[in-house]
Amino acid sequence: MTDTNTEHRPNATSDASQKPLSGFDGLVHRLGADKALGLVERLGGTTIRVPVGLQQRPLEQFAKTVGNMHLAKLLVQHYGGTSLYLSSRTAARKLLRNRSICLAVENGVAQGRSIGSIVTGIALEYALSDRQVWVILGTAPSD
To answer: Is residue 66 within 8 Å of 43, Cβ to Cβ?
Structure first.
């Protein structure tokens, strides 16, 4: 699965105690899931050069590329001066789906449901096999 990537990320952590966030995870963390997915919907599978600073003309041109000025300013703030690879829409959607699945399992376990029934329900909801759900959870059962 191809994922977003950045090179020379000056602001790659949200604070000094965290490991660097990269790829689509970094975009989601910094922009929110909706904005990150919207950006990937518009430009997925491409590399964009993020300008440094907020000079009017380069920022206006960049805003046209990414879709709006607010998003352009956020990207400059977090990724200014870098080349940012945006994963394909499929890869980004799969990552968000997998996060939702993991969260659904955590919530189900917290409610006292059995892991087997949770996995079966998720498999039906997402049109996946039980085994695919187990693989997403990182605990595929042996045959």
So the answer is: yes
